[in-house]
Specification:
Elements lengths: L2 H4 L4 H8 L13 H4 L20 E4 L3 E9 L2 E6 L3 E6 L7 E3 L6
Antiparallel strand pairs: 1-2, 1-5, 2-3, 3-4
């Protein structure tokens, strides 16, 4: 995700998700992005798919991790070996396994 993409999201929500903290509210209304009216409301997570917040996962290169945050198009995972990584859901099909099972 580029810096340009991040700039349109609520900064509080982005930072808390990055550090694995839940933030149930939509936009905070206090950061510069929210005050300028540019922060979109997050889409409801009706179907979190195979990577819900709190799920254990295994990456082919980085090993075991825990999903700490989720947006409609990406997840933030805390890996035991490399720390936090934000991954595009469209790119994890062959590298990330739910439940920490599988090869890797």
């Amino acid at each position: 995700m580029s810096t340009r993409d991040r700039s349109r999201w609520c900064r509080r929500r982005f930072l808390l998700a990055y550090f694995g903290e839940p933030y149930a509210a939509g936009a905070c209304g206090s950061c510069d992005t929210c005050r300028d009216g540019g922060a979109p409301e997050p889409a409801p997570a009706a179907d979190e798919g195979p990577f819900p917040v709190g799920a254990k996962v295994k990456h082919k290169t980085w090993g075991q991790g825990t999903v700490m945050g989720r947006e409609p198009d990406r997840i933030t995972v805390l890996f035991d070996s490399v720390g936090y990584k934000t991954l595009a859901l469209s790119a994890v099909d062959h590298v990330l396994t739910p439940g920490g099972d599988g090869p890797g």
